[in-house]
Specification:
about 350 residues; alpha+beta; 434 Repressor (Amino-terminal Domain); Endonuclease I-creI; 4 domains; four-stranded antiparallel beta sheet; 13 helices; about 35% helix
């Protein structure tokens, strides 16, 4: 193991006395030399070789100070040496991780950061395990108290270099026009895993109250990534349409079901790891005689809706959120289609421990 050292010399009282008696003040000397003289006079025990040479030339002296052996890397403690990583190859796990990083990830210097909703702990644990399986490095967690923001991060130059080698870039993803790496585009199974990572971060699965149908949407502000996403969907056989400038949306009913069964996005579960449907919607206005309920009464609302034929449909696992009231259960002719969708999607079982 190589030890990096730097030459330093012990400061003596004789040097301090020469500094004190010099015609320049300590402030003037600091301005001329470019480093703080007060620290040398009052605080420091040693001085490095470069500063000593500058000081000798200014003071017109030639002091032979005693050299001190000093290993500066010890000041960094456990962070002095970068943790080694596993041997990394092109595979499905890496393709999914790159999809996650393209969505909500960032690389800055030697830091890898992934943003999350801190309430979605199961998905965070899933990404932690995925990262550990690929690199052998455990991600650290940071949560913001005032908001629902959460971050997974690590500092490792070997991980950063590997990700750069596999096609990612440091810095702003939009300015760099970051795209899906070519080695992923050439392999269909890698495309599926990368697609799952993109949908789980920058995608959503929602129920349209107007069309009474489940849609899949992908949103991003990187034009190059939007083009690559569209090409990926064509390669996999899905007809995503342009919803607006920054959105691609899958509208076809049977393609939505095939997408969920084939790609297995974790968004369909809301991150809970259990199969339940519909994905986050409330109830319709006509079920309340006095219009929209107040917040307190809405929070205590029943967690299922009874359809006209007597079937109970589960609304949301856990607490019903106030802002979800905009999503509605369709009535009339749309109930039959909704019931068919429910029966079809209830067959989906997603287990985080077995998901690959």
């Amino acid at each position: 193991m190589k030890i990096y050292t730097i030459k330093r010399y012990k400061i003596t009282n004789k040097l301090r006395e020469i500094i004190r008696k010099h015609q320049y003040s300590m402030r003037k000397m600091s301005q001329v030399l470019g480093f703080e003289i007060k620290n040398i006079y009052f605080k420091n025990v040693s001085i490095n070789e470069e500063h000593l040479q500058k000081l000798n030339s200014l003071l017109n002296v030639n002091l032979n100070l005693k050299e001190i052996k000093f290993d500066f890397t010890k000041n960094l403690g456990i962070n002095a040496f970068t943790q080694p990583i596993k041997k990394v190859k092109e595979n499905g796990d890496l393709a999914e991780l790159i999809g996650i990083l393209l969505g909500d990830g960032n690389i800055w210097h030697n830091c890898i950061t992934i943003a999350f909703d801190k309430r979605n702990k199961k998905y965070m644990n899933y990404v932690k395990k995925l990262f550990d399986d690929i690199f052998g490095i455990k991600l650290k967690t940071k949560a913001i108290k005032e908001t629902n923001q959460g971050y997974l991060y690590c500092y490792n130059q070997f991980v950063t270099q590997k990700l750069l080698d596999f096609g990612l870039k440091r810095g702003d993803k939009i300015k760099n026009n970051l795209e899906i790496p070519e080695w992923i585009k050439r392999n269909k199974s890698y495309c599926k895993r990368c697609m799952r990572g993109l949908i789980d971060t920058d995608g959503c699965i929602y129920l349209s109250k107007r069309d009474k149908q489940l849609y899949i949407e992908f949103t991003n502000f990187n034009e190059q990534l939007l083009k690559d996403f569209k090409n990926l969907t064509i390669f996999l056989g899905y007809n995503f349409a342009k919803a607006n400038k920054n959105n691609w949306c899958l509208y076809r009913k049977f393609e939505v079901v095939r997408f969920i069964k084939d790609i297995k996005p974790l968004r369909i579960n809301g991150g809970h790891g259990e199969a339940w449907y519909p994905y986050r919607f409330g109830t319709c206005r006509r079920r309340f005689k006095s219009g929209w309920p107040h917040f307190k009464s809405y929070r205590k609302m029943k967690k299922f809706v009874v359809l006209p034929d007597g079937e109970k449909v589960k609304l949301y696992k856990g607490k019903i959120r106030f802002k979800d009231r905009a999503k509605v259960i369709p009535g009339g002719d749309g109930v039959k289609k909704l019931r068919e969708d429910i029966k079809r999607l209830r067959l989906i079982k997603i287990d985080y421990s077995k998901l690959k």
